Amino acid sequence: MWKNNCFFLCFFLAFHLLSAQSYFIKSLEGRVIFDSKGIPDVHIMNTSAGKATISDEEGRFTIDVTMGDTLLFSAVQYKRKSLVISASILESKMAYIRLEEFVNELDEVVVRPYNLSGDLIRDMQQMKIDPVVTASTLGLPNAYVKPMMQSERLLREASLGPFSIGMLTSIPFNPLINAISGRTKMLKKRVARDKKYLLSQRVRNYYPDSIFVKRLGIPEASIADFMYYCEVDENFDSIVATEDHIKILNLLVLKSRDYRKNNRLE
User: Fold this and answer.
1) Is the pLDDT of residue 1 over 60?
2) Is residue 32 part of a domain?
3) Pairing label, strands 37-38, 78-84
């Protein structure tokens, strides 16, 4: 009889302990904000439970907490903030965490061996700068000539042929043979393709991959294919040539809608 009572007592205590633990564990929903706007990519760490998550594009996050846990919020350009979970936070439907912008203000700093103070005007007046040596400052011929791509050099050679003394007294047949065989036409297409590729690479350098993935909805593995899809647009060359990042991004947004639809990425 005593053994049975002991068993039921242990079972009763274990049941209540588990119930209490599950009662205090809550999936806390919150939003990290600054100046009334959500902050994306904020690292939220529950230092008490060893759990972590990251806020989404609107600053929203979800993390498991219990009473007394400490949450640590950290993000680039913002001050770190710790938050102790209280009863009121547990009972709230949405917790709002406001971060402060981190401003790195330094006093006058002297950088040796150049004795720089951080005052740009004063430092420029004190520093002795040697003249910049470039092909243009040296007056070298062809200093301002833009280097040709490999495909452009091949096209030039196919059109003119390698120079020889005989070209001054006879008609070179190399360009004629290349024209008949189709090599010249093929090289012209290669030059046009390479120029398109350079424009595409310029656009890739304007924006990080996260813009393509999060803003345009293009999978990271499909960014190169998406850029090729944009290259065939008749307005691509002229818009990229403006170097206006806003116009270029608007073009990418429009093209991304068609690309996602055609590739069933919606």
Assistant:
1) no
2) yes
3) unpaired
Over its C-alpha atoms, the chain yields an Rg (Å, rounded) of 33
Same domain, 155 and 243: yes
Q: Examine the domain organization and report whether 93 and 157 are in the same domain.
A: no
Whole-angstrom distance, CA of residue 248 vs CA of residue 256: 12
Over residues 98-107, the pLDDT tens digits come to 999 887 655 5
Q: Residue 19 pLDDT > 60, yes or no?
A: no
27 by Cβ neighbours in 10 Å (0-12 / 13-18 / 19+) ranks as exposed
The answer on 244 and 154 residing in a single domain is yes
Task: Give the domain range for residue 233.
Answer: 150-262
- pTM for the whole thing? 0.39
Residues 77, 165 within the same domain: no
Q: Domain containing 62 — which CATH number?
A: 2.60.40.10
DSSP string, the chain: -HHHHHHHHHHHHHHHHHHHHHHH-EEEEEEEEETTEE-SS-EEEETTTTEEEE--TTSEEEEEE-TT-EEEEEETTEEEEEEE--HHHHH-SSEEEE--B--------PBTTTTB-S-HHHHHHH---PPP--TTTTT-TTTTPPPPPHHHHHHHHHHH-S--GGGGTS---HHHHHHHHTHHHHHHHHHHHHHHHHHHHHHHHHS-HHIIIIIS---GGGHHHHHHHHHTSTTHHHHHHTT-HHHHHHHHHHHHHHHHHHTT--
The verdict on residue 3 lying in a domain is no
Distance CA 161, CA 154 (A): 10
Confidence band of 188 (pLDDT split at 50, 70, 90): confident
